[in-house]
């Protein structure tokens, strides 16, 4: 202990205090502050970059999920559209078929009707012609048969007989 | 830790370890070269060879003692045969009826009396005493001079070493600060310094002081760490300086820690000192002096720990080298050389360790003074977080 006290040099203590305090002040101003600031900033930058990377990764994931979803939706939509188109096609075919059938039937009906009316008209004309012809024939026959008076009297009598009979 | 690192590191460590060896071996060499003279002296006095080793031992002891002390000259080595010293003298500043300023070379290594401003001064064992024109020194029974001592404010070897260290630190760290302007990652020396700075921040300051308050104390902690570290490492170089193994230096550093602790302390800290909560009133009163003493023992422990560790390291390394010259044979030489090498490597570890421990404990004391004691109920949980001082 005595040696410790003996060894203690006030001058050294004094200079040490001055040098050290000045050194601390100088270093704080010119070294520690810029160093600590730079390190802190760099660390914040690294942390920020990591967070940004993480966020980008998440966003990417979201985007991928979105893409997947959109793709899925598009696929479903396409499927629906195809299905719809097929349905429409089938319906159109069916419709066309029915329509054609109806139209055909209608046409047949019309044809039938016109045929009937034509036939009726033809029949009427035929009847007329036949009656005219018959009258003419009868006329001719009568003309020939009733050319003499005997024949005419005969006929009258005969007709009268018929009437009597009736 | 040191031994398990890479080859390059080991090589550097070994290189560092050899430095003090080379230097001290150099000086011890002269101790040896000075030996014929001593032998002649011994022969004159006692006509016996038995005195010679004892004389050598005391010579080594004196040399080690001299090394541990501060000095007014920066001597790299000296030739005892011719009495020539190689080095340079430093300015002496005395405050004794005004400021007296002269070069230490005027003492001619303690051989001359210097007359300055009507007063006479003598250099004895690296200390300056007031004396008369004849240079009379009176001694007490412990062989200590009883002459009055002027207030010695000289730029001594240690002050010089501190100035150089301060300059080195300033250049290194302003360089590191500048390197951040070029890019986020430092280059060159900064690559080594930055991890140390981060280590102090992440392993010392933040765990002990807390994330909210550590920033304010970083300047002191970083400065004190690198200051002690560089001076410790300087102590292992052939320059033969012993700054951190000087009680005045460690006292100053410990005192600064003490002041920082006291001035940054919060209300809780003072409350725990002067009116300890949760104890009976009588105990509160009894605890006051204990707690006050407790605040003083902390920096005192800091002071003694650093001083003792570094001084002991220097003494052990130099004694082991001295033993080579005491035994002076082919078995002792290489084996003591190996042992010195080993201890020197340990000393590198100690240099880092003591710088770390000083910073660690400083931050711990500051942390204890600024920490918030929230409530008594979470006191138990709180104490678990606190680091344990061994």
Short description:
The complex is a heterodimer of chains A (166) and B (390). By secondary structure, chain A is mainly alpha-helical.
Description:
The complex is a heterodimer of chains A (166) and B (390). In chain A, 96% of the residues lie in helices and 0% in strands. Chain A has 166 residues and is mainly alpha-helical. Chain A has one domain. Chain A starts with a helix and ends with a helix. Chain B is mainly alpha-helical and 390 residues long. Chain B folds into 2 domains: 91-154, no CATH class; 159-385, no CATH class. Chain B is 63% helix and 10% strand. Chain B has helices at residues 7-33, 35-46, 51-68, 157-182, 190-209, 214-235, 247-264, 267-274, 281-327, 332-370, 379-385, and strands at 73-79, 84-89, 91-95, 99-103, 114-116, 119-124, 127-131, 151-152. In chain B, strands 4-3-8 form a 3-stranded antiparallel beta sheet, with no helix packed on it. In chain B, a hairpin with a 2-residue loop joins strand 5 (114-116) and strand 6. In chain B, helix 3 (51-68) crosses helix 9 (281-327), helix 5 (190-209) packs across helix 10 (332-370) and helix 9 runs antiparallel to helix 10 (332-370). Residues 1-5, 18-53 and 375-386 of chain B have low confidence and may be disordered.
């Amino acid at each position: 202990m005595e040696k410790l006290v003996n060894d203690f040099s006030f001058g050294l203590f004094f200079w040490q205090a001055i040098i050290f305090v000045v050194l601390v002040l100088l270093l704080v101003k010119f070294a520690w502050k810029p160093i600590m600031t730079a390190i802190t900033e760099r660390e914040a930058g690294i942390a920020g970059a990591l967070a940004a990377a993480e966020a980008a990764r998440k966003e990417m994931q979201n985007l991928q999920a979105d893409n997947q979803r959109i793709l899925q939706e598009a696929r479903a939509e396409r499927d629906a559209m195809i299905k719809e188109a097929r349905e429409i096609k089938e319906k159109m075919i069916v419709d066309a078929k029915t329509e054609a059938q109806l139209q055909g039937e209608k046409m047949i009906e019309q044809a039938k009707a016109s045929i009937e009316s034509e036939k009726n008209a033809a029949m009427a004309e035929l009847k007329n012609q036949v009656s005219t012809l018959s009258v003419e024939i009868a006329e001719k026959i009568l003309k020939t048969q009733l050319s003499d008076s005997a024949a005419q009297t005969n006929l009258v009598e005969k007709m009268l007989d018929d009437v009597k009979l009736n | 830790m040191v031994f398990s690192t890479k080859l390059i590191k080991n090589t550097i460590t070994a290189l560092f370890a050899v430095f003090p060896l080379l230097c001290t071996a150099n000086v011890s060499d002269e101790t040896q070269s000075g030996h014929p003279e001593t032998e002649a002296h011994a022969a004159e006095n006692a006509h016996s060879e038995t005195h010679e080793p004892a004389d050598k031992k005391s010579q080594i002891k004196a040399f080690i003692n001299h090394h541990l002390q501060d000095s007014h000259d920066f001597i790299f080595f000296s030739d005892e045969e011719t009495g020539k010293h190689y080095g340079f003298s430093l300015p002496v500043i005395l405050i004794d009826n005004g400021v007296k300023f002269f070069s230490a070379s005027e003492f001619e290594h303690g051989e001359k009396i210097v007359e300055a401003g009507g007063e006479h001064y003598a250099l004895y064992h690296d200390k300056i005493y007031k004396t008369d024109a004849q240079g009379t020194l009176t001694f007490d029974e412990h062989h200590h001079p009883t002459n009055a001592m002027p207030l010695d404010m000289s730029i001594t070897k240690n002050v010089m070493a501190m100035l150089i260290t301060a300059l080195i630190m300033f250049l290194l760290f302003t360089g590191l600060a500048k390197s951040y302007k070029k890019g986020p990652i430092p280059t060159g020396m900064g690559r080594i310094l930055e991890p140390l700075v981060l280590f102090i921040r992440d392993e010392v300051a933040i765990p002990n002081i807390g994330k909210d308050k550590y920033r304010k104390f970083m300047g002191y902690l970083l400065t004190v760490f690198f200051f002690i570290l560089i001076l410790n490492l300087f102590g292992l170089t052939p320059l033969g300086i012993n700054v951190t193994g000087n009680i005045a230096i460690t006292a100053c550093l410990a005192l600064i820690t003490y002041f920082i602790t006291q001035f940054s302390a919060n209300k809780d800290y003072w409350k725990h000192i002067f009116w300890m909560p949760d104890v009976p009133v009588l105990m509160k009163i009894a605890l006051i002096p204990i707690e006050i003493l407790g605040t003083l023992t902390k920096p005192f422990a800091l002071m003694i720990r650093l001083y003792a560790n570094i001084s002991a390291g220097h003494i052990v390394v130099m004694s082991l080298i001295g033993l080579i010259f005491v035994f002076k044979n082919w078995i002792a030489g290489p084996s003591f050389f190996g042992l010195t090498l080993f201890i020197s490597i340990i000393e590198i570890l100690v240099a880092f360790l003591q710088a770390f421990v000083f910073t660690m404990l400083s931050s711990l004391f500051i942390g204890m003074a600024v920490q918030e004691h929230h409530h008594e109920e979470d006191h138990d949980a709180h104490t678990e977080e606190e680091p344990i001082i061994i």
